[in-house]
Amino acid sequence: MQKNYLFYTKGELGNYIEQRKLEIKKEIDHLNEDYILNVSEEDLIKALVNKYILEAPILKMEEMHLLEPKEIDVVSCDYNRFIYVKGTLVTVVIPFEGDEELFYYLPSTFSFVIPQGKIYGNELHLEYEVTYHAQEYLKNKITEDIQLIQSYLNWVKNDVDNFNNSLESYIRDLIKIRKNKLLQDRNLVSSLNIPIKKRSDAYWTYSIPIKPKKIKIKLPRAKTEKFKPEPTLAMEIYEDILKTLENMALVMERSPRSFSRMDEKTLRDHFLVQLNAQYEGEAMGEVFNGLGKTDILIRHDNNNVFIAECKFWKGEKQFLNTIDQILKYTTWRDTKTAILFFNKNENLSKILEKIPVIVEKHPLYKREIKINSETKFRYILHLPNDPNREIILTIMIFDIPKL
Questions:
Q1: Under 8 Å between Cβ of 324 and 384
Q2: Where are the beta strands (DSSP E) in 27-138?
Q3: Of 15, 33, 135, 267, which is the most exposed, with the fewest CB atoms less than 10 Å away?
């Protein structure tokens, strides 16, 4: 019988994995320039991971079965003469899950005995030509062969797991390198350096220390047509602004007598005072403004790069409406947003349980960003009709107890 070796015929698994990595790099390098500058980076990474991830085969032993025995001619050697004798072909079929291709490559760990078998679609076939009915011998042989194949599959899985575990970071690095090169090619540095900066005379009414940090508007991604830079608030400044808001909210939380009777607009004004005490905009006068139905915002070139809303918690419907309200005023990619909820009536723990469930119901929800906080949540949403234009939404919950 012709020998059909597994884990051997196409070379080493390590070389196959390196070739796969080269294919990933080639695909990223050949992506259209405007596409890669415009597309959601996380969505692109996820799609490429899903495309190139390897799935080590797993035998479904519970579905193992035999095909009908088949009479065959078996070549036998008798006194240096080859003769044909009647025999039986016994075929053991074991279905499997995973990538068929991985049955043909030698893992980095292996034994000197190479298993034999055939792959048909998602089935492994083990064939045995027998000329006499030695049932116990055949049973032991089948068990021995399956154990050897399982050992090889475990070694394959070790190599595959190493590749899969590093796949996301590998793809992320390639995309970032490509994007940075394209930005440099177009003479675009990482920020527009819009003149919004920390006040040199900044003070904090409630004696909470804030380290001076300069606001930078980073050069981001383009619209779907032709690449055009759109400024975005630097992440470290976004965090600093949120910290200022959080500090002010904590003061309110700890001083209910002073703030419990205030309405949303009056609460908003306290935040504006503190924010404008910390930051200045040379080209814009007061950086933080309360315009229209939007409570707090930073604008650049008549577009919003930061939006925040202050609301008393009134349930799911109001929450979803507030998200819609923020999205209505959002035009640029990577706009940073926030919602500050003040709770007067409901158990805070119940609200915290509801927040993730409600946000995931929103039709423009994309994913959660994990942050280390019990009362703060962060999500990625996208603008209507364009899933690539993403915004960051941070939700903060504070108690203002009734007196």
A1: no
A2: 58-59, 65-66, 70-78, 81-97, 118-120, 123-130
A3: 135
